[in-house]
């Protein structure tokens, strides 16, 4: 089967300089056979994009009120992030297990309200959210490695946190809490679990994938889809903003 031109061009743009410098793409064995050279594989890096709508309005003390939705609406925003995994343990004929760290960022913007009138003032408010996770990551890569099937299911879970702050035209927003003036900023702790499936793009052009490995050390590139349940509600702290969410994520994984 002929590989799609866009994939060949993408990988070709990366490995053509290696050819210009005379890199060998193959090694000779003692019997004279020629086999592809493969670099060690110990890490994974993900580029991620999620549809994110925080659970702020699920706080029981709100009594059914929805201040977040009233201000910012009900449309999810893109949450852009990255993840780095160390594939510390290889389990023969199963896959890899190791720690990972993820960080992402998004911003919600809307015009503030004029007092209690319910009309917009024209002044802009922004809610910034930076969630992060420290995970254990399990990838079942026996299918492409031993069976020639280009799919890798995986699961992850661990500790999470979310940093947030609200800005207006004067900087960090402030609000009155009784007699005190509080800053509109804080953090929420919690946990998350996720499961996903990756498609190994090497199958679209194996020769280009081997050459990319030879030149850059990138063993494999995957396209992935993932479902995440994140619970960032403060772990019992009553005044924490609920930043967790159920969300779908897509992106690219690079193993090296």
TrEMBL record:
UniProt organism field: Pajaroellobacter abortibovis
Residues in the signal sequence: 1-20
Keywords: Signal
Full protein name: Outer membrane protein beta-barrel domain-containing protein
Statement: the UniProt record of this protein carries the keyword Signal: yes
């Amino acid at each position: 089967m002929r590989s799609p031109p866009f994939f060949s061009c993408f990988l070709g743009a990366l490995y053509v300089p290696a050819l210009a410098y005379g890199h060998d793409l193959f090694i000779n064995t003692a019997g004279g056979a020629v086999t592809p050279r493969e670099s060690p594989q110990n890490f994974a890096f993900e580029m991620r994009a999620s549809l994110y709508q925080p659970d702020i309005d699920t706080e029981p003390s709100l009594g059914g009120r929805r201040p977040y939705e009233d201000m910012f609406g009900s449309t999810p925003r893109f949450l852009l992030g990255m993840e780095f995994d160390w594939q510390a343990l290889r389990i023969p004929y199963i896959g890899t297990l190791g720690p990972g760290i993820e960080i992402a960022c998004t911003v919600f913007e809307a015009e503030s309200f004029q007092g209690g009138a319910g009309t917009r003032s024209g002044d802009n408010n922004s809610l910034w959210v930076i969630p992060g996770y420290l995970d254990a990551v399990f990838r079942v890569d026996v299918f492409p490695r031993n069976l020639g099937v280009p799919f890798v299911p995986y699961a992850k879970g661990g500790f999470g946190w979310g940093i947030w702050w609200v800005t207006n035209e004067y900087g960090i927003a402030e609000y009155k809490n009784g007699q005190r003036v509080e800053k509109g900023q804080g953090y929420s702790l919690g946990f998350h679990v996720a499961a996903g499936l990756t498609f190994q793009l090497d199958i679209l052009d194996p020769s280009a994938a081997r050459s990319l490995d030879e030149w850059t050390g990138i063993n494999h590139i995957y396209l992935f889809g993932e479902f995440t349940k994140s619970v960032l509600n403060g772990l019992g702290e009553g005044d924490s903003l609920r930043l967790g969410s159920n969300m779908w994520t897509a992106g690219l994984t690079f193993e090296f």
